[in-house]
Specification:
- The protein is an alpha+beta fold.
- The protein has 2 domains: 21-150, Nucleic acid-binding proteins (OB fold (Dihydrolipoamide Acetyltransferase, E2P)), CATH 2.40.50.140; 183-328 and 393-502, BirA Bifunctional Protein, domain 2 (2-Layer Sandwich), CATH 3.30.930.
- It contains 17 helices and 18 strands.
- The protein has helices spanning 20-34, 50-57, 63-66, 104-107, 109-114, 166-171, 173-179, 183-203, 244-253, 290-309, 333-341, 345-348, 354-364, 375-386, 440-455, 466-473, 486-494, and strands at 70-83, 86-92, 97-103, 124-133, 139-150, 207-208, 214-215, 227-230, 235-239, 257-265, 277-286, 314-317, 320-323, 329-332, 395-401, 417-425, 428-435, 479-485.
- The strands form 4 sheets. The chain has an 8-stranded mixed β-sheet with strand order 6-10-11-18-17-16-15-14, with helices on both faces.
- Helix 8 packs across helix 17, helix 11 (333-341) packs across helix 14 (375-386) and helix 13 (354-364) packs parallel to helix 14.
- The radius of gyration is 29 Å and the shape is elongated.
């Protein structure tokens, strides 16, 4: 009888961890309980944050005035020093940190011995008291009442910084956020970027929508899907590669401006720029085209950059300056190969002998190619290998071959060229956009070509989606659509070296 691998336990019962520090903390936990102290209460409500208190009183130097200020705060103990009957601790909350002072004569000898002496770094406490300045002029809370809110039985790591710990930092992001103060602002910037994107789109009349995450047919982009199984329907489903075909169904239905910010899933490798689940914003606008969307995307990203940088259009990413000042460069794919790779324009110009020239160029640059590739596939491979990483300042690349753009409208002036652009910044693709193909017969033919490519071994080729073709048969107005990779954009605007730096919980290999 076959067993379902999903029903197997992912992790056997772990063996007890032998850690003297954890055992010592468990003993202190037991001592607190024996003294009648609940180490995990839920009845304390802080009234101020560390940042609020510092902002309001950091300029006040008079201790008599500070003594009249009553505070009620909570946070994690990050540092503790004992001096006989007086102890100082660094208490950190979600906004920042502040020093607290606990004096035995104030909190009482019994409490000091039975409770406070069992509190240590990592524990979460609530304090009520007043303010004063120490001899070194540090703003401090003079604790009158202290309550243990959470007893931590695992100590915080002493050494956490540095490349040797980087995977542990990703895997245990909860610890990373506690001990590395520079991490939290990065994710606050990510939130700001996404919030600003939504506001920008809504101001221009776009409706935010949600479309399915599980698809009966994978589509919307060329990629290998993740497969799951729905037991009640007894059918396989696919985590979505892209929301494109569902969003365009909404355009057919009469929503003329829609956007979605959500996750996509692609069954590909892990790298500094790739995670199998990632966040994108896709949007579609009826009665528009890819050239109008270039203007809109440029306007959107300029808005985001100035929002994050407080008005500047200059960003430094990993030591490289990036200038977002508009207008941005716009080149065709062929022009980019000539300008950035030194390719002879005559070799890639359409005509007799082009295919052999492209094959020779690919061999000269040691590209791995398929013997069945057409000119469009060869051009794209050469561009990706020779040009992409040189496009540091924002650059729109247009006129992609139709054979690598199965959902894009054909150019009226060049039928073998798609009305499509990709935006490159910092050497990375950040956005991809089309004048959408709304001819149902042409779309059906291109789906059939994708099916043939799958049969020939291309695991990333699309499936035939008959319902989407049926939707187009009802009539989709002329439409422009674009997708923007949020993770890579956040990397650029926060000076992050890896996509894992901008994902709270990136995908990693399982721990052994």
């Amino acid at each position: 009888m076959k067993t379902n691998p999903l029903e197997k336990p992912l992790e056997e019962n772990p063996q007890p961890e032998e850690n003297p520090q954890i055992e010592a903390r468990k003993a202190r936990l037991q001592a607190l309980r024996q003294a009648g102290v609940n180490p995990y209460p839920n009845d304390f409500q802080p009234e101020q944050s560390a940042a609020d208190v510092v902002a309001h009183y950091d300029a006040v130097l008079d201790n008599e005035e500070l003594a009249t200020v009553n505070v009620k705060m909570a946070g994690r103990i990050m540092l503790m020093r004992h001096f006989g009957k007086l102890s100082f601790a660094r208490m950190q909350d979600g906004s920042g940190a502040i020093q607290i002072a606990v004096q035995r004569d104030v909190v009482g000898d019994l409490f000091y011995q039975q409770v406070f002496r069992h509190i240590e770094v990592g524990d979460i406490v609530g304090v009520t008291g007043s303010l004063f300045r120490t001899k070194t002029n540090e703003l401090t809370v003079r604790v009158k009442v202290l309550q243990l809110l959470t007893k931590a039985i695992r100590p915080l790591p002493e050494k956490w910084h540095g490349l040797e710990d980087i995977e542990t930092r990703y895997r245990q992001r909860y610890v990373d956020l506690i001990v590395n103060p520079e991490v939290r602002p990065l994710f606050q910037s990510r939130s700001l970027i996404i919030r600003s994107m939504r506001h920008f789109m809504e101001e221009r009349g776009f409706l935010e929508v949600e479309t399915p995450m599980m698809h009966p047919i994978p589509g919307g982009a060329n990629a290998r899907p993740f497969v799951t199984h729905h037991n009640a329907l007894n059918t396989d489903l696919y985590l979505r590669i892209a929301p494109e075909l569902y969003l365009k169904r909404l355009i057919v239905g009469g929503f003329e401006r829609v956007f979605e910010v959500n996750r996509n899933f692609r069954n590909e490798g892990l790298s500094t720029r790739h995670n199998p689940e990632f966040t994108m914003m896709e949007f579609y606008q009826a009665y528009s085209n890819h050239r109008a969307l270039m203007d809109l995307v440029e306007e959107l990203l300029v808005h985001l950059v100035t929002t994050v940088t407080n008005g500047s259009l200059q960003v430094i990413h990993q030591g490289r300056p990036i200038d977002f000042t508009p207008p941005w460069s716009r080149l065709t794919l062929a022009e980019a190969l000539v300008r950035w790779a030194g390719v002879d324009a005559d070799q890639i110009r359409e005509g007799e002998g082009r295919h052999q020239h492209l094959l020779q160029l690919a061999r000269d640059h040691h590209l791995t190619i398929d013997s069945n590739w057409d000119d469009g596939q060869l051009l794209l491979a050469l561009f990706e290998h020779l040009v992409e990483d040189q496009l540091i300042n924002p650059t729109f690349i247009t006129d992609y071959p139709i054979s690598v753009s199965p959902l894009s409208r054909r150019s009226d002036r060049q039928p073998d060229t798609a009305e499509r652009f990709e935006l490159f910044i910092g050497g990375w693709e950040i956005a991809n956009a089309f004048s959408e193909l709304n001819d149902p017969l042409d779309q059906a033919d291109r789906f059939q070509q994708q099916v043939r490519e799958r049969a020939a071994g291309n695991s990333e080729a699309m499936y035939y989606d008959s319902d989407y073709v049926r939707a187009l048969e009802y009539g989709m107005p002329p439409t422009g659509g674009a997708g923007i990779g949020i993770d890579r954009l956040v990397m650029l605007l926060t000076n992050a070296a890896s996509i894992r730096d901008v994902l709270l919980f990136p995908q990693l290999r399982r721990e052994h």
